[in-house]
Each structure stands twice: as structure tokens, then as C-alpha cells.
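Researcher: Let's continue the batch. This sequence belongs to Bifunctional uridylyltransferase/uridylyl-removing enzyme, and it's 916 residues. Same format as the previous ones, please.
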Amino acid sequence: MAASSLEPVLARLGDVPLRDAGELRARLVPELRTLLDEARASAEARLLEKGDGLACARFLSDRMDEIVRLVHDAVVRHLYPADNPSMAERLAVVATGGYGRGTLAPGSDVDLLFLLPYKTTAWSESVVEAMLYVLWDLKLKVGHATRSVEECLREAGADMTVRTSLLEARFMFGDRGLFDDLVSRFDREIVAASAAEFVDAKLKERDARVAKAGASRYLVEPNVKDGKGGLRDLNTLFWIAKYVYRVREPEELVKAGLFTPEEFKLFARCEEFLWRVRCHLHFATGRAEERLTFDLQRTIAERIGFAGRGGLSAVERFMKAYFRIAKDVGDLTAIVCAELEARQAKKRPVLDRMFGRFRRRRGGALENDAFVIDNNRINLRSEDAFERDPANLIRLFWLADRHNLPIHPDATRLATRSLSRIGPTLRNDPEANRLFLDILTSRNAPEVVLRLMNEAGVLGRFIPDFGRIVAMMQFNMYHHYTVDEHLIRSIGVLTEIESGKGAADHPLATQIVGTIHNRRALYVAVFLHDIAKGRPEDHSTAGAAIARKLGPRFGLTESETDTVAWLVEHHLLASNTAQSRDLSDPATIRSFAETVQTMERLKLLHILTIADIKAVGPGVWNGWKGQLLRNLYHETEVMLGGGAVDIARSERIRLAQERLREALPDWTEEEFESYAARHAPAYWLKTDEARRVKQARFVRAADREGRTVSTAYETDRFRGVTEFTVLSPDHPRLLAIVTGACAAAGGNIVDAQIFTTTDGMALDTIVLSRAFDRDEDELRRAERVATAIERALKGEVRIADLVAGKRPPKERARTFQVAPEVSIDNSLSSRQTVIEVSGLDRPGLLYDLTTALGKLNLNIASAHIVTFGEKAVDVFYVTDLTGTKVTHAGRQASIRRALLEVFKAEEAEQAQRRSA
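Model: Same format as before. Here are the C-alpha cells for Bifunctional uridylyltransferase/uridylyl-removing enzyme:
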């Protein structure tokens, strides 16, 4: 859309003034809408063809300039001509904000400043109003202000947002003298005396914005605009540079001395990539979408042109590229902060805040003369420190940990520029590896130092296998962070346990961590447990091979290396066993103990498992998982010690009953003994003390009120779930009815504990994912779910009809693919057949599976429901109606076919809905 294409639009309006603004809009808007649609279509085509996001944003900005200019000319020519304008009838139209930078995303706001000489006149007010109505009729999101030069300066002095907006002001058309007056006075009266204040305010604003969007730049659903490492961070750097050094174009950052030419190339590459992603997001969704959600990641990866390679899918390769860019943006931020501080343009506390976990100290000698303490931070004595001794690249971080001091950004910057010095010689240097092992196993803050090493690029270069998983995401809803960030956070959890800070959540781990003999092996295993993610082979097996290679290099003994390799290979064993197996079945414990073999391994695996689960993301760990892991530990401890499992189990049952009795002082002995006798041993072994107390009172209340069907519920904000307790007469289809009622009421089951009392009652705990942030809203929903469960159990509603009306979101079916699997095993239990079903989770899945099992005439003795994001793993302990295992091959094949059909039917229905 060139100027020549706009003139005919004005010509078609004629030269005669129109009757009113309504007539102008009626004739002008349709033509402008066509031009705008054509411009956006052209921009999208260029983006898809050439892949230049910044060029797309600039093209859209240029086209918007032409639209705004055309609207102004039409208004002035046909509605409010000013043939002999007075000094008051002057107007400058100025672009501000992102539009002021000359870039515009498809769904971005159009920010305009209508600049006046000193006050609004009837003419200027009419022109501005008429222009805005046309722009609004075009469905544009217009942010606007009408101010005089004096008003702009007054507002900028009081409001940092206005000040930032004016910083990026760009003259479009009108009275140039007004704009030039504003710029010169803004520089002289506002900017000149407030550089430090502006820098401090912008960095604090960035901290608040990042905290709101998600503090880690490695969150797997990042915000491209406002998240850490996103476009707004680059904007902030440029705002600071413009304010402090009054540069006008990004290229001037090199001349100002903030960046080297190579660093500016990195800045430009980051900016283009982030704009490319943002423009694709807006085009793909048809709105100003800034968050790369799972359902959009695959779409954007395809639009940009990523393909699967080397064990990674297209979307995982795209997101790895995204996170590398986010890391580069973080590096650039650190560079600018260091340069500003060196020039004293930034207040010191801002930088110190970045290293808040370090303790401050002043003075003190360092063990190596290549380093000095510079303003309470470790810095290099000379720029050739890494050249003279490449081991200093590791020693820099070792000293930071040893002396609890932050690293000067200049030193970090030089380390990043010296990565080429980390090669085979340094990787095999015993001293460098000793220093690294000291960092990894430090009792100070290894998580902090490892993250600094990773962000500087040193960690991935020193350990190439770690470098392969830097910025790697796993395309699922379970993992919240990239693989490298997950491993570093795992070390943080381990340090927390060892320091005793996690005693409330992990009493057993805190108790046993001081008794282990292989502390170094534990830290290395935690650091390496997911090192082989993203490879075609099983990551646990491949990771064990990597551990055997790296152990001797790090200086571990042969025995330590064997322990690390074993832990990496089996790091999922305890979690999978605890969550998806019946721990009251001796066969489960026997099988687990045969693999673990020693008490030392049991302790190490227990602690590693906690560190792994907790580092997955917020809300993934909960008390329920902790109790299951502790139960597994105690059961295995008895077997490994050569004791009788049944005796140990009976002792723990006795202790559990004693503690419950103490918690119920208002119960009579006869009342308590009668209640305790109703529960099978599995109940006392599997449930935690708090739940036993709540359920005892719940059952007694139901008995006293004569209710054979009863429900109770409570929310847990920290875990993000709502728990339901269900009491009902037991029967074969009970679980199907309960799960169906939950699905029909919009509840997604994420876990369950199922027990049958000796008098034929079922006492089940069903855990649903939370739907509302506010407790009052969630409790209202819980009441609806509880009512649905009770009505279903009483036979007042037909569950099948209700569940049939529920459908999973179409987007979810498109976003994730999980191949369904069914395994049937008779060796895992001494009494039942174990059926494990995994596949894409959805509302109603558990109901469909339990219904299918019911139709196959199978009794469900226990069920273990586990979800890993979008993947459901449901394990059922079943028997035939005769109470025996399912051993016939033909019968097993029928079960497998029936359960797989549950997924196939849903897939077919989803495909039919998508085609419709």
C-alpha cells in the first residue's frame, strides 16, 4: 500500500465538504478496511515467505502510518479545513509506545499523541475526535492522548510510564516545530537530571513484570512480550540506553560503548526472532496473543518451518531455539547492567538484588592471584586471566561459592566471550574437574552457582552432554521448566533437604540424609538424572552410560561411579512404584527390593526421587506423594533388613491405630475398637494420619445420621486440588459411578485412594484438579460435584447419559498425542492381575475405563490414578468374578482390545468433530 494507492481514496471523496462526520466515516471506513486487510495479508505472506519478524513489524507500522495520515487528511480536507490557521490551530500527530519505535504486531495497540501548541481549541478537538472515530470504526485498538508540550512535560515529570512513552515518540506528520520543541525540552528539562532514577525505575518495573509473567525464563509456556527474556526486556535495554546516552537507533548502542559489534548482532538476532514469533502468534490466533501456550507451540513451529531431528520433535526444537534466545536476552541485560554500573548510572542495590541469596562480605584474600574482590564481588585482575589459565573459567565460580560472593558482571561477560577456551584439554583437567565437583557438592548454594555457570555458557561447554539439554523443553503439561533448569532446581531441592529446611515436608529424607555414605554420588546422580533427555533411546539407560563416562572424569571412585549410574538408570523406579502399585501387596515390595538390593541405595533413591519430583514445577509435589514414598521406603527397609514384612506391617498398623485413638479423645473404647475393626490392613498402611482422623469423624457422623451414602470435600490451594471423601455400600460398578459423576460435573480426577471396609462399605478419597482460584468459587463447584456423586450412587441419575454430554476441549486433542498402551502383568501381585493403562488424559477417561472393566466382569480390588500433565497412567488390580487372576491369553487379549477401544473411539469422535 503506497501513497499512490491512498490518493484515489481521497479523490473519491471529492473536493466538496461533507455534511458531517458520519457521512465521512460511511464513505471512508469500507475503503480503509479493504486497504488494512490487504496490508495484513501482504505482511503475513511476506512473513511466511521470508521469515523476517522485524521486517513484518516495520511493514505493518509503515502501512498504519499511511492509514492514519489518510484519515487525518480526509478529516481536514472534508470536515474541518483550516485555510488560514492561527497559531492555536496547529497539530502534530506523533506515534508513541511500540508504534513509536516503528514496529507493530498484527494485534498491537496503535498509540498516538496529538500534540498541541498550548491548549485544545474547537478545531483541534473536532479534528482529533473525527480521526479517532474513524480509527475505532476500523476496529483498531487506539491508545491516545491530546496534550500540549507543557502538559506532556508536566505529566512526564510525574509519571514514569508517560516519560517512557515520550522517550519513543516518533513524528508522523503535522507541525514539525511542535514536535522538535517537545523533544528538546524533554531532553533538557526531564532527562538530563534523572538518568539514575529512570534506570532504577525501569529495572524495578522489569522485576515486577517478570514476577507477574513467571519468574523463570525457562517456563515452558513463556510470554513472548512480557516474560523474562522476552521483547519487553529488549525494549527496557533500549529505553535505558536512549535515556542515559540519548541514542536514537539501536545501532548506536555500539558507539555508546554498551555493546561490542558482536553483542549488537546478538541483540538484533534476538529482536528479530522474538518479533517473528510474536507476529506469527497474532496471525495464527487473530488476536493480540502474547503467550506461547502448548496448543500454539506446534502451530508456530510449523509456521516458522521447524522439523523434527535428532530425537527432538519440531515443536521441541522450536522451543529450544526460543529458550536459547531468552537466555541471550538475559546475557544482554547483564551486560548493560554492568556497563551502567561502571558508569555509575544505576543504583548499586539493583544489581545486588540479582544476587540476593549470597551473603555479603568485605575484603579478604583470594586463593588465586588472577582474581580480586571488586566492590564486594569477584572480578578478574586482568583480561588475560582465562587465556593464561583456562581452569580459571571454573575457578571463578568456585571462588564465588567458597566465599559467598557474587561475580562481577564484567567477569561473567569475559567468561562468555572466552568459551572457546573450554575444550578437551580443560574438560579432562583433574584440577578443573575437582573445582567443579566442589561446586556441585557445596553446602552453600550450588543451585545459584550452577545457574550462573549455565547462564554464562560455561556449564554446557564444560560438560557437552549437559550442553545438549540446555534450553530443551519437553512438550508436555507435566514439566514446567526446561531440562537444564529442572536439573539445577533438583540440586537446590537436595541442598534444602540436607540443610534441614525441608524437614516439615520431608521428615524421613531429612532424617536419613545425614546417614548416607555416598554423598558425592548422590549429588552427581541428581545433577545427571535427566542428562540424556531428547535422545531416541530410553533416557534412563542412556543417562547411566553418560554417568559411567563422566564419573571418573569428575574424580569419583569406581564404586561411586557405579552408584551414580545405578541411580540414574533407576531414578523413576521409586516414584512409579509408590504412585502406581499396591504397596500393601508383598509382591510389590519384593520386586522393588530385589532391584534396590541395599539400604544405602534405598536411602539415595528416596532422596533423589523427592528432589526430582519437587523440581518438576509448582504444585507437582504434595503430601500424598510424600506419604506413598515413605510407605514404600519403610516396607522395603524391613525386607532388606531380613525382617518379616508382615510383622513390621502389623507393628505399623498398631502404631497408626494408637495415634488415631489419641486424636479422638471424645470416642469411647468400644466405639473406637468397633471402627478400627472395620478397616483392612491396607487402610492403615496407605493413609496419612491427618486423613485417618478426618475420615473417622466423617464415618461416625454418617453412621449417627443413618446415611449410607455420604460425601465430604475440602480444597487445597497449595496443591491446586480439591479432595472428596465418599462413603457408600460397595459394589462392582462403584468406582465407575463415582468417576462418571465427577466427569459429568466437570471434575478432572488426578488421584484416588480406594478402600473397602470389612462390613461392605467403600471409603474412597477422590482428588480433583482445582478449577477456580477463589476458594468460595471452588467450594461451590465442589458442592455440585458432591451432589452429583451422591445422586449417582443413589440411582437418581443415569451416569452414562450425563458423561456422554461431556467432551474434552478440541484444542487439547490437537495439541498433544499420547499413544495408548495397555499392559497386563501377573507377576506384580500375589493376589491380583495388574492392568496398567496409559494414554491421553481427558474428562471421563477414568469412567470409560472402569466401565469397560465392569463390562468384562472384572472386580477392581484397588486402583491407582496418576497423571503426568496430559498423560494419564491408571493402574487397576483386578480379579475375575471367581476371585482369581486373569491368566488365559485369550482373555487377556480381549481385555487389552476393550481398553484400547476406549481411546480409539474418542480419537475417532475427535477427528469427526474437527472435520465438521
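Researcher: Any comment?
Model: The first strand starts at residue 92 and ends at 95.
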